[in-house]
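Lab notebook, bench 4. Continuing the backlog of folding jobs that were queued last week. Each job is logged with the same field layout so the records can be merged later without manual cleanup. Today's entry covers Recombinase, a 63-residue chain. Filled in by technician R.K.

JOB TYPE: sequence-to-structure
TARGET: Recombinase
LENGTH: 63
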Amino acid sequence: MPDQRHHMLFATLWNTGMRIGEARMLTPESFDLNGVRPFVRILSEKCVRDADARQKMKCARFR
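JOB STATUS: finished
OUTPUT FIELD FOLLOWS
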């Protein structure tokens, strides 16, 4: 099983161009596989989780 997880992690990193820190912040809700074009919502590494139970994200906004 770990080999399959490592393979999926590497494939996700390779195909999306995200960094490992961004990949660590992925949740099942980050993936939209039901549309015409599947995609992944990637949060910037500038995001941090709140300490409260809801686990909200605080992200720096780039213009």
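OBSERVATION: The mean pLDDT is 76.
SIGNED: R.K.
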